[in-house]
Every structure is written in structure tokens, then in C-alpha cells.
Amino acid sequence: MVKFIESELVQLRREVDQMWTLVYNQMDQARQAVMTLDRQLAQQIVVRERRVDAFELKIDSDVEDFIALYNPVAVDLRFVLAMLKINSDLERIGDYADGIARFVRDIDVQEIDDRLLQDLQVDTMFTLVLNMLEELQEAFNEEDAEKAAAVLGMDDQLDRIKRASGGILIDYAKHNPDAIPLCFEFGGVFRKLERTGDHLTNIAEEIVFYIDAKVLKHNDSQEKSDKKSPEGKK
Amino acid sequence: MKKIEVKEVDFYYGKFHALKHISMEVEQNDVVAFIGPSGCGKSTFLRLFNRMNDLIPGSRLTGQVLIDGRDIYAPGVEIDRLRKEVGMVFQRPNPFPKSIFDNVAYGLRVNGIRDKSFIAHRVEEALKGAALWNEVKDKLKASAFALSGGQQQRLCIARAMAVSPSVLLMDEPASALDPISTAKIEELIRELKKEVTIIIVTHNMQQAARVSDRTAFFYMGEMVECGETKMIFTNPSKEATQNYITGRFG
User: Fold this and answer.
1) Is residue A173 a part of any domain in this protein?
2) Which residues form the domain of A211?
3) Distance between A82 CA and the closest CA of chain B, angstroms
4) Nearest alpha carbon to residue B93 among B172, B208, B206
5) Strand stretches in B80-166, DSSP E
6) Do A69 and B183 touch (CB under 8 A)?
7) Could you tell me how far CA B14 lies from the centroid of its own chain?
């Protein structure tokens, strides 16, 4: 490997890692904003979303330059393609954090019933999403395909909580008609977190793809979990 | 800081108009790549910078070529001094039939330097700068012809660098080399740019993309486009450049 190409790849990896940390912080603060209905914090997240967008454009441009200038092949090609897709997934996760923050900022209520929050397991959902983000960032930095693949199963729990949330919100709305707008809007938070899980699954697949040249996309969960110990050429 | 300025240059081989009204600037410590099809004038243009074309009967230049603000075609310019300032590396390695040491020391001796310890020091520095020292330090008295093609080319780079030029011209310096030797030369270019301004002619567009800061595309004696390499290879402004770099040319 020519050293200067290696240094370009290191720089690209560093940028994606920084984007990752930024998006993680956005989602972590979105959690705090929801749990405490902190509108000021929510507004800060909305403002910072511009940084996420700017970062996405920078990484896109750097990937384009790298492909145009260095014609990468094999693991280098898989790496830059993965960076392009991971970058896009991270940006969408940033969008969801922004959307959740807007919900907090704009919802016309003074507080959210603690019992409702507990029944909905919204904190558990945030915790899962943040754990997945963290695990995948580690897998990315350590080039650990096994660790990335292990995250794939965590998405199922997000789906279960999201599915249950619909019934819980309907029941709550029936018994608290004043909270119908809140319940309606709150459903959007669950959809966003569930979609975040889908994007994190994509990221896990991209990490496995670039490290082990294995395509996990469009396989069902069983097949994916069977490949938690992928072996393949580098 | 402008290292080189070319102002409205036209160049003729007899009646053949080889370079047409070219103007460009080169910043100090930049690597500039000249690309274009065979016969487009890029090598002719390169050779203007150390007046190599002067040797061709019937050749004629109009316009100005300035290095460090001085017109190198002005009356009274000493060609030997110019060529010490503007080194050149050719397509095929062309070591002299001498030892490795003497090849690198040649330019110093020609320039009147006799201090043996200084020469030895500069030879070592130049060979280190050309990433060749570790491979030849135990056989400096061996013939330069005993080296591989890639090593010979790095020796020629060391020879050019030994006299501390401020500009290095490279005319397809890796086209006769295998991929590993080519990679070494490309890495060397990245290192050498810290010391010198480099102009490289190459047929290998990816090489231009990998090593240069700016790229100029030549066609039929005209400089069609010159710009930041990233821009040339991602979004060139001229259709002809795009057609050439995407292989649709002709």
C-alpha cells in the first residue's frame, strides 16, 4: 500500500468516526429532551442538525475525490463504498434525532405522564439505539466484523417495542382524550427510533461487507445471525 | 508564491506550431501534472522550463517563461546555471556508466565542488531523499548499471536532487517501471515536493490523479484546461478534458 493513499483512508475513517460521535450525541440528547421534555435542549439539537448535514456533504465529497483520484480496488474499494453508505445512514439517524427534538420543542403539553413513558419503554428504546450506535462505532474502529454482526439481532427488540407502542398509545388516548394530540405525535418518535434501528442494521451489514466481503443485505434475521462469525477473504 | 509563470507562449518546430498561446502559473512546492494524448505538446512544454528545446534546430519561442520572476529566455541567462536550478528526470533511467556514488556526485563536481566530505554528505542526503540509500549504502562503488530499473530511476532522481534544484521536471518517470517501482516513485514525488516544485508529464492519468496538486490537459498544442487535480478528475470544466479522462476521447 502506498503510504499517501493509506493516509487518505485514515483521514476518511477519522471523518466518519467524528460524524458518528456527532450523531450519537444528537440521539443521546434527544433522549434527554424527550424524558425531561426539555425544549431548550431540543432546540439545540435542531440547530446542530446543520452540522450533521455539513459533515455528510464533506464526507460524500471526500469519497468522490478518493474514488476519482485513487481508483481503489478490493478492500479499499469496499471500504470507501461502505463509508459512503454508512455516511448516508448516519445522516438519516441525525435526521431522526432532529425530528424527535422537534416533537419535544413543538408539542403543546407541560409534561408527559411517567407511567405512559414507562409502559411505552421509550427509554429502553433509546438505550437500545444508543448501544447499537456505540457497539457499531467500536466494531468500525476495531474492524471487528463479528461485533458488527452481533448488533443485527438487537434490532428485533426495537421492532417489538415499536409494535407494542401503538396499542399502548391508543389505550392511553381513549382514557385521556386531552392527550390525543400527544399520543398521535408520540407515535412518530417510535417510528423514528424503529427506522433508526433499520439504518443501524444497514451500517452493521456495511461493516461486515467491507471487512469480510460478505453481503448480508436482504438475508432474513436467522441467516444474518448465522453469519455472526463471518469468514472471508480480506 | 508563484514559482513559475508562463506568459502567452507559442513554440514552433520550424513551421510546425507545437504550442499555442499558453499561459499558466505554478505555485512553489506544487506538483503539476501534464496529461494529454501523444503529440499534444506536453513534453515540448515541459522542456521549455530548462531550455532543452534550444538544442532542436529551427525551434522558436515567443512569449515569456519566468522562474522566480526571471525570464529564463532573456539574453544573458546561463543555461548551465538554469539546468542546475531546474533538474530533469527522463522516461528511461539514464545513469552514467559510472559508480552509484559518482553518478550522484557528478553534478556537484561539474559545478566545481571539490570538498570530498561535502560531496559524500550530499550524495548520502540525495540518496536518502530518493529513498535509495538503504538499498545501495553498502555498494556505492558498484556500477549504476547493476541496479534494477526502478533503482536506476531513483538514482537519476538522486542525481538531479544532489545539486539542490528548486524545480524538478519529470518526463514520464515511471512509464518504464513495474507497479512496485512506480509506487515508490510516486511516493517519492510526494516527499520531494516538500523541497522542490515538480512538473510531471505522464500518460498514466491515475498517476497524475494520485500525485499531483494541479493538472493541465493538453490537446493539439493547446492547454485546454488547468486546475486543481480534484476538480479535473471529478468535474472538469471542458468537455474535451472530460472525454479524455473518461476514455471517450477520439
Assistant:
1) yes
2) 3-226
3) 20
4) B172
5) 86-89
6) no
7) 25
Is the residue at A162 inside a domain?
yes
Q: What is the ipTM of this complex?
A: 0.72
Asked whether residue B61 is domain-assigned, the answer is: yes
| Residue B115 falls inside a structural domain | no
Q: Provide the residue-wise pLDDT of chain A in tens; the chain has 234 residues.
A: 467 788 899 999 999 999 999 999 999 999 999 999 999 999 999 999 999 999 999 999 999 999 999 888 888 999 999 999 999 999 999 999 999 999 999 998 888 888 999 999 999 999 999 999 999 999 999 999 999 999 998 889 999 999 999 999 999 999 999 889 899 999 999 999 999 999 999 999 999 999 988 777 767 655 555 544 443 333
Map residue B107 onto helix, strand or coil: helix
DSSP 3-state of A228:
coil
Residues 6+ apart with CB under 8 A from B244: B35, B36, B37, B205, B217, B219
Residue A232 resides in a domain: no
* Owning domain of residue B213: 2-94+157-245
B183 to A2: CB separation less than 8 angstroms, yes or no:
yes
Q: Are strands B222-228 and B197-201 parallel, antiparallel or unpaired?
A: unpaired
* Count of structural domains within chain B: 1
Strand order in the sheet with B197-201: B86-89, B167-171, B197-201, B31-35, B214-219, B222-228
Q: How many domains does chain A have?
A: 1
CA distances (Å), B171 to each of A171, B2, B55, B174, B194, in order?
Answer: 78, 22, 17, 9, 20
Interface touch A70/B234, C-beta < 8 Å: no
* Cα A79 to Cα A77: distance, rounded to the nearest angstrom: 5
- The percent of chain B in helix, strand and coil, each rounded to the nearest 5, is 40, 30, 35
CATH number at residue A45: 1.20.58.220
In-domain check, residue B239: yes
Q: Given CB atoms, is B159 within the 8 Å cutoff of chain A? A: no
Residue A231 lies in a domain: no
Any idea what the CATH number is for the domain that residue B84 is in? Answer: 3.40.50.300
